[in-house]
Every structure is written in C-alpha cells, then in structure tokens.
Amino acid sequence: MSSINSAIIIGGGIGGLVSALKLHRVGVSVRVFESVETIKALGVGINLLPHAVRVLTELGLAEELKKTGIPTAELMYVNKFGQEIWQEDRGINAGYRWPQYSIHRGKLQMLLLQAVKDTLGEDAVFTGHHLSSFEQTNDKVTAFFENKKTGERIGSYEADIMISADGIHSTVRKFYYPNEGLPKYSGRILWRGMTESTSFLTGKSMIMAGYQDKKFVAYPVCPETAAKGRSLVNWIAELAVEEMPSITDWNKKIDKEKFAPEFAKWDFGWLNVPELIEKTDAVYEFPMADRDPLPQWTFGRVTLLGDAAHPMYPIGSNGASQAILDADALGQTIMEQPHAEQALKEYEQVRLEPTSNIVYTNRKNGPEIVMQIVEDRAPNGFDYLHDVITRQELEDIANMYKKVAGFDRETLNSK
Questions:
Q1: What are the pLDDT digits (tens) for 213-240?
Q2: What CATH number is associated with residue 327?
Q3: Which residue range is the domain that position 334 belongs to?
Q4: What is the bridge-based pairing of β-strands 153-159 and 284-290?
C-alpha cells in the first residue's frame, strides 16, 4: 500500500492538470492550487507529440482532443525562399498509433481543467492561491498560500507530497536554488499571433522557414475553421535581437512593425507570410529563454515537474509534451513504489536525464539545425537540394531527435 494518499499540486497549467488526473487514477487524493483568480483560455498554438497524446488517450481524453485540435499530417522545413529542405509525415500519417495534434494552448488547458473538475470534483481546484512558503515534517508537507494581489494570507493545506508545476518562474525551484537568477536569454525573440486564412499545403501541415536567427513557423490549430475549408493559423516569427528585453515580461502585446519588415518578401506562393502578419490583430512578444538543467528535482516529499523542472527552448514541439510525460512517469512511480520520498526520487531518476538532454539539444537547434546547415551552405538558395545536404544527413538528424525526445516510432508503438 502506498504511503502517498494525498498530494498538493502547485500550478494549474498543462503539467499540473495532467498530473492531477494521473495521480487521481492511481488512487491519490489531489488538490490543485493556481495563483490566478480565473483560469482563462490564454496563449497561442502548441503541438502535442504522439507520446504525449498516448498519455492523454489513456486518461480518457482522445475524443475531446479530436474535437479541439488538428491532427498534424506533415512537417516541412524550407529555406527563406520557400524551397523545401525536409518533409516528413507526422502522427497517424507517419505510422504512429497516436496522432500528433496542433492545438490552442488555452483550449487544451480548459479541456484539462474541465476533466479535472469532472473527475476529481469542482472543489479540487483552488484559484487565487499563490504559494508563499512551505515546510516538511517526517510524514507531511504543509503549503501556505496568499492572495498574490493583496498579500493577504489565505490558509494552509497539508498532504503527503507536493508537486511544483508552477512554470519557469517557479516559487519552489527558487526556494531550492535561490541564487539561480533569471532564465537564460537565447539572443532571440519570438512574436506570436493567430490569423484566419486560406489553408496551405495539406491543411494539416506544420512548416518552418528560414534559419536560426530568422525563422517563421506556421500551422493550423482549429478543427471548426478547417471544417469551413479555411485555417486558423498559429504563427511564430523569430529574430536574433542582441538587446535583451525584460525576460520576466512574458506575453506582452506589441507593434508588428517591430519585426514585420524583416519578413516583407517571404511570399512563397503557397504561404504568404507578410499577409498573415498584416491580418493579425494581436501579436505577443516572448523572449526565447530556458534554464540550465538541475542536478536534483526531488527534496524529500517535494518535487518539480514541467517548466519548473526543465524549461526548454520551443524547438521540436516538446514543451507541453514533456510536462505530460513527467506527469505519466510520476503516476507510474507512485503506483509502483510504496514510500513517498523514494517514489519521488525514482520519478526524478526516470525523467531528469532525458529532459536535460532535450534542453541541451534544443540549444543546438534540435532537428531544425538542417535549416541552418542549408543557410550556411547555400545562402542564395539551391538548384538541387542534395548538392547542399544529403538525404542521409537529413534522415540522421530527424531520427536522432526523435530518439532524444522519446518519440522514436518503433519504440513508442511497442508500448
């Protein structure tokens, strides 16, 4: 019998909510605490890779995902002239047992929030509760909360374990690593928006154009828009910017003129980048940042999860997926290990090294490095791709990343 009967989860984002569903399934009583007063469908598009979709499917969410996301059919890298560098099928099209989904982050969060309330009860989620401090005894963790706006203390709760899923600016991580400082700025800024437009390529395609310091990503995220023969396109423009913006000022709305001129000539025929940007009402700025991998996540009855544990560059479509894999691993180790501290330590042993490897690989551009290789070798474009980069080189890079990120098809399909 597990000594873990109850858990406090700090953070009502994707990692925290999936953890709540997973822990409930293995018999743990869970309460989720979120700083904001009201959880809203904020954010833009993200991708869920097949290994994450497998976890969500096992939690009974397959039909809801199908209604909410676009099953990604292909991924294509092109240079700044729109010339194809690499194309591969994705998800079911690529022979996986589970789809890959392009989905609105906020809609996914609301889907998960509703699942938690339906499964665990409305009173399992506490909003307006910001973690101010916590303490451990031999057999319990007590968490103390406040209203973040007023500083008013609003109570304490205890449980057998506490899971910190409170993001890149995690309170718990800062407690254990007080001298870590701000996230590490990459030297690149992302501008993100959503635009309804005509479909491009398959209507379920994800494209990346350009190279490391000047890149554009686009993919559709809305099945309802697709049913009308159009696409709600999530797009990301990325540029190298030497001057570091306020790294704590995430999701800041900005003037498109700050970056749009750099992409003014990027009309590929099948995708008109300047038009997409021009037709977007609201554009948000994100400094691209991560943190160095940690030597330890688990401290007695407290552990880190998701971006609190391993924030990474948004390369290779991995951020949300890795948080979901964390939640799955946490549930598995709790089910198999009767002692709380040992269970959390085993979860760390399963997940720390793989996620650290992704952080380091993403700093080197992950699978997108093929775009930089082609830019370096053929900055003016090419007549024949394989004079610039061989098919084998392209395949090796793609396959290597799938192994690093844990979604090698043969390995995953055998689970």
A1: 999 999 999 999 999 999 999 999 999 9
A2: 3.50.50.60
A3: 6-69+105-182+294-363
A4: unpaired
